[in-house]
Amino acid sequence: EAAQKDTSAKDLERATEKLKEIFLNNGLYNGDVKVYGERVKRVIGACEDKDGTLISAKKLHDDISSALGIRIGVPQYFRKGEVALFEASSLPMYSVDFATVGRCSGKESVTGDTAMSFESADGRFYSLISDGMGRGPLAHKVSNFTSEYFSSMLGSLLKKSTVFHLLNHILRSGEECPTTVDLFEFDLMNGDGVFYKCGAATSYVKRENSIFRI
């Protein structure tokens, strides 16, 4: 973990040095710029710019995006005397389309499965399928609770192992009714994807003309 933090700090230092060079190339000589953050980057810059034309130039922000390899959101501008300042954060590089089809079994009026998708505040997309054991209203109640639980907990600072562990205790605290969890996490900032499967059936992933199982 210490080595990871050290690498991250060095990456931010290198990124900051790149942006200082970009500042100079865009005519911002009496200024400074710095990059913060790991997954979600924040760029803060300041320079002497009486009318704000240099620091608000589209080329400057295009160069910053290109150098960092990220999309930069619309900057916020501030002024302190003759010094102009801006602050901007990185935007997600990816978006996800999500669709689901459900069907009741037998003569039941409600399916025991619940499928949902949501995004967390830190730029992650989640899709989840929960299958409450059995069928009908009770199975649906448990699977729906499981889905709502994950949608509220996955944006927290808790580790995912802790989130799963807490769910297990909650479901066992009353009348026990097991449920499966099939969770897909996709990082909208860098494109990494992870599957978390607890008692769930096989997942099939289609990529172009190939299909593989998880």
Task: Write a concise synopsis of the structure shown.
The chain is of the alpha+beta class and 214 residues long. Helix content is 31%, strand content 30%.
Characterization of the model:
The protein is α+β, with helices and mostly antiparallel strands and 214 residues long. The protein has 4 helices and 11 strands, in the order H-E-E-H-E-E-E-E-E-H-H-E-E-E-E. The strands form 3 sheets. Strands 1, 2, 3, 4 and 5 form a 5-stranded antiparallel β-sheet that branches. A hairpin with a 5-residue loop joins strand 1 (31-36) and strand 2 (42-48). Helix 1 runs antiparallel to helix 2. The longest helix has 24 residues, at 2-25. It starts with a helix and ends with a strand.
| Strand composition percent | 25-35%
| Percent helix | 25-40%
Spans of 5+ residues with little confidence (pLDDT < 50)? none
Number of DSSP E strands: 11
Features:
single chain, 214 residues, alpha+beta, five-stranded antiparallel sheet, four-stranded antiparallel sheet, elongated
List the helices and strands and how they pair.
Blueprint: H1 2-25, E1 31-36, E2 42-48, H2 58-68, E3 71-72, E4 76-80, E5 83-91, E6 113-119, E7 124-131, H3 136-153, H4 160-173, E8 181-187, E9 193-198, E10 204-207, E11 210-213
Antiparallel strand pairs: 1-2, 2-5, 3-5, 4-5, 6-7, 7-8, 8-9, 10-11
